[in-house]
Amino acid sequence: MAFFSKKRSKKNRRRRGFSSRRNSHPERKPRGIIKKLVLLIALSSILFFSSSFLNQSITEVQYLNTMKRVSSDDLEAISLKIYNQGFLLIDLSQIKKEIEGINWVKSASLERRWPNEVNIFIEEEDIIGWWNKDSIINSKGDLFILDKQSMPVGLVEFYGPNGQQAMVFEKYLLFSEELAARGILIEKMTLDFKGSWSITIRPDLTVRFGKENISERFDRFLMIWDQSLLDNLAVIEYIDLRYTEGFSVKRRN
Question: 1, 42, 159, 211: most buried, per Cβ within 10 A?
Fold first, then answer.
């Protein structure tokens, strides 16, 4: 009986020893959590101060080119939206969109320059021609009133009913692309009050398309130009394509 009691006593001691070692883990866990919290706070502080250092307030806006027609007041309004914004947080894509909505702006590019500067380059729209001899039409197809004395020479002349400038300009873009590939320049683009289309090309040669099937008649003009007209331009006054098929030519007097 004494032997059995002694063995059981050893077992109990082993169990107590094992139980004592397991109880030491919960004491170490709070220390690990505290270390992680301290490390997280330190990293957050570093990130905060680094971001604050890099994210300086913008105090300078530079326009890298001189504008001839873009309004300085409109540009000043854009600049006021940029000043004091954060270098890292400013939405340049939104600013670019607003600038490109200004009259005479064709495109804009923006870049940050640390610590406090934004540089802006603006490409202006070109003057394409006159609209009904009293307005200017630009390369967006928009109309403006400008000082005639400051206009460049050789502008295209556009004619049409008031309010139809967008349609006339769109047709001009379609025609001029095909004609320029052949070395042909449009001097005048006309939509009359009856809805009839015509163009005048250099040297002072009028091409009449009429009111219907304009695209088909334009293609017909390109075909006859490529085949036979080049050698006779000097003696032709106008070409009339207002036929279901074919064309007619009037010679100069």
Answer: 159
Domains, the chain, ordered by start: 60-124 (3.10.20.310), 127-251 (3.40.50.11690)
Q: What is the pLDDT along the chain (253 residues), one digit of tens a residue?
A: 444 444 444 444 545 544 445 555 555 567 777 767 766 776 666 565 555 557 888 999 999 999 989 999 999 999 999 999 988 889 999 999 999 999 999 999 999 999 999 999 999 999 999 999 999 999 999 999 988 777 888 899 999 999 999 999 999 999 999 999 988 899 999 999 999 999 999 878 999 999 999 999 999 999 888 766 766 777 889 999 999 888 898 888 7
**List of E strands, the chain:** 60-63, 105-113, 117-124, 127-131, 135-138, 143-144, 156-159, 186-191, 197-201, 205-210, 236-240, 248-251
